[in-house]
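User: Working on a comparison across species. This one is DUF2334 domain-containing protein from Pseudonocardia oceani. Can you predict its structure so I can line it up against the others?
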Amino acid sequence: MARLIVSLSGLTDDSLPRGAAFAEALDARGVAVSQLYRPGAWEGWSDAPLVGWLHARRERGDAIVLHGFDHSAGPARVGRRAEFAALPRHEAGLRLRAARRTLGAVDLRTDLFVPPRWIASAGTVEALREQGFTMYADEAGVHRLDTPGAVRARVLGFRASGGRRPVAEDARAAEAWRCRVLVAEVARVARRGGVARINVRAKDLRKPARVEAALAAVDAALAAGAVPVTYRLAAARRAA
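Assistant: Here's the predicted structure for DUF2334 domain-containing protein from Pseudonocardia oceani:
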């Protein structure tokens, strides 16, 4: 049976209104969201509107997913390298513990992890397993950590990947191409009974065409019979 996972990443207090509107549109379709959240290393964030909103969304069935700790440039991120892309086990473990302490302070604990840019080093995977995480998802699939098993399913979104580029130089044509490709790929995966994974970033929500395309892709997956789940439910189903 086909499944549908919709994740939302990169939200801040500033982008929260757009994120809330998108989540409400998914609510109307009966689709819960996997909220990819980075707590950050700053102070004074515990009273942020985003934190309160995430609590409310969790009550409505959304899954809270740790999405790294501190994405800013530093020893863990060289140039364009993602935060957990090359960390050894010990360093990854330190950052994971810091992130979990921060989440625990505001009761947003989770055992689900998606690395920034969907790239996790072997050391990061070891650290996740040592700290009792049950699932992590990368660009290629969803992986169990407490039991053997993985679901191969490529994450789909508006970020160019796999060497594919728009077929036109014109910006509007290129944007339309991205939107068409997302809807077509999600529909194809759902028709074949696979796991359609859609990730929408906060920056995507600034473009109405991308919001419309993401919702059209969700509608296409549902029309093809896909069952909406979060990363938590996907992990639980895989364990069963």
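For your comparison, note: The mean pLDDT is 89.

User: Helpful, thanks.
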